[in-house]
Amino acid sequence: MAIIAVCLAFAFLLSAVGASFHSPAMDYGESTISDIQSYFADGSLTSRQLVSFYLARIQSLNPYLHAVIEVNPDALSDADTADCQRLSGSPLSRGILHGIPILLKDNIVTRDRLNTTAGSLALLGSVVPRDAGVAARLRSAGAIILGKASLSEWAYYRFEDAPSGWSARGGQGINPYVASAGTCGSSSGSAVSAAAGMTAVALGTETHGSIICPASLNSVVGIKPTVGLTSRAGVIPVTPRQDTVGPMARTVADAVAVLEAMVGYDKRDSEATAAAAAFVPEGGYMQFLKEDGLKGKRVGILRKGFFNFVQGSLEKKTLEQHFHVMRKKGAILIDNLEIANASIIQNGAESGEDVAMLAEFKLSVNAYLSELVISPVRSLAEVIAFNNEHKIQEMIEEYGQQRFLDAEKMNGIGRIERAAIKKLGELSENGLEKLMKEKKLDAVVTPNYSCISFLAINGYPGISVPAGYGKSGVPFGICFGGLKGSEPTLIEISYAFEQATKVRKPPLIISAGDLSGR
């Protein structure tokens, strides 16, 4: 403790006189968590230097990419604490995430000097009672909260017509590979920041595609966990029936390291996390990072209605090559499979998902707003009124807030909503669940984000892995999905696929100036 006290006093003195450590010339934009920990161990890198590197990269790239809404003003002092713990040999410094900077999507609350607004001006200045469950777990693991990543406002639930990646606070997020490609989904800033090397890893959330889709389009790994595997306490909600929190990173191993630190029971999200706690394997998830993880796995290829998401011949050719590699690595691929009632599942109005989510959103967001210590708004009705009063800032005249208006008309979970929720369960049971059991599948595989509806409606997990780049350079991914609790199997398959293909490449960016003409 004495060493830590002296170390922190020295760090404070440096800060007081304006001194700071400068990151070495090395570029850490593509470094993995394992790389970083090895640099920490041999003394060639400190957490302060690493945080300084990412802050400088954010300062350089964010004026164009709009991937980060806000950086943590305490990130450097938190890094100093991590460095002191490492220097003193504290047991806290032995974890794989110790001293690692992580960006959180701006709907994951933190009880610090950062705002949590879901990208909306209506929540700017609100004060939360405590850290989100996942944020608290990451801090306990020694991670450094670097800041908040941008997102499609209100997790893309306020409107349908706005471009993905846009929010009133964050502006329009930009794909770092091809600017015109878009960012997709609401966890846009988390995906972009990880892809562009603005953070070691990031957290996203998914209700219906918001991790899988941006991961695919921005060439990063995204893990959508089984609903309840990670706590949603302290996450600005859409619906507790589908909301989940997951990691986004440049490698499967990095994403799994973050997942392992987040999972487990949380009394503030007790029902879901208690049910999912049975799925957490003894010894954690890192043990499933196996290069031979495809061997003997029965993987179903979903084609009809799923390959519509493949844009061109190059993508199709690349996917077929990937399937060939998977077979060579020992996977048993069952081709041309179909899911019963697929067209209904993919249509939210027909499946019942739309009406169920409207009712659940109103209930959930009102509950969240009511628990804030300080807030400019206390209900969905007040959010709507705020938006109407701030038309220029919120671009309300251009994008509107129709979903909010529709949700405000709802009166809880009544007969229609209960019937819709029941229908969603039946569609899942007779769809993906029935197919996987009948064909004895370990996983299904789809291109890009075509799997999202099937994973969303019953809380199933999925992992998106970079799969290639189209003729114009736009990234695309491949998604492995399964039934609840199948993360160990999906990790084995995803990691083995990643190691066998190694297709991901970083975006060709150095500064915002390099991007302005693309």
From TrEMBL:
* Domain Amidase residues, every copy: 50-448
PANTHER family annotated for this entry? AMIDASE, OS04G0183300 PROTEIN
Keyword Signal in the entry? The reply is yes
Tell me where the signal peptide lies: 1-19
Q: Which GO terms describe its molecular function?
A: hydrolase activity
InterPro entries assigned:
Amidase_dom, AS_sf
Name-wise, this protein is: Fatty acid amide hydrolase
Gene3D superfamilies registered for this protein in UniProt: Amidase signature (AS) domain
Q: Which gene encodes it?
A: FAAH
What keywords appear on the UniProt entry? Answer: Hydrolase, Signal
Ribosomal protein as UniProt keyword: no
